[in-house]
Amino acid sequence: MNLQPTTQKIFGQKEFLRNNVGTEYKTGGATLDADAFEEVAENGYIKAGTATYLGEEGFYVPWEDPSTDEDGNTEAREGAGLTSHDIKLVKGTKPISGILVAGHPLERKCTGVTEGFKAEVKGYLRFDA
Fold first, then answer.
1. 58-76: per-residue pLDDT in tens?
2. Would you say 34 and 92 are in contact if contact means Cβ atoms under 8 Å apart?
3. Which is nearest to 26 in space by CA: 116, 111, 97?
4. Number of helical H runs and strand E runs in the chain
């Protein structure tokens, strides 16, 4: 196991925030399940502004709208937010990312934002300003 620090140049990140007013980030960052992000990754990177939530195994995964059972109960989602920077996707790893939990993102520059995601983060992430 190599414990030496490494650096990777990441360039070309697009700004996905309207402004920095009222931004809040998850304390301590979030551990992502890189394998789960293969479908939403572009050119080997998870883009900044990708919708995520805390999955059942304790790792953040791409947002999927919760399912509703026959009784009308909706599956719970915890920790919904947007990745704060581009992340290089390496199969089998668990990268750590900042998660934006409050602010003013531009919906057209985000990935995976659905009506269900907007309902989950309503009052924290404001897409319509």
1. 999 999 998 877 777 777 7
2. yes
3. 97
4. 1, 9
First to last CA, the chain: 47
What does the block give as tokens for 124? 């924290």
Amino acid (1-letter code) at residue 88: K
Beta strands in 58-126 (DSSP E): 60-62, 78-83, 87-88, 96-97, 99-105
Q: Say how far apart CA 129 and CA 117 lie, in whole Å.
A: 17
**Of 24, 81, 91, the residue nearest 49 (C-alpha):** 81
Instruction: List, in order, residues 6 or more apart from 43 with CB less than 8 Å away.
Output: none
One-letter amino acid identity for 21?
Answer: V
| DSSP-assigned beta bridge partners for residue 50 | 111
Residue 81's nearest CA partner among 32, 18, 39, 9 is 32
d(CA 29, CA 112): 19
List the chain residues with pLDDT less than 70.
Answer: 1, 8-12, 129
Q: What is the pTM of this model?
A: 0.85
* DSSP label of 67: P
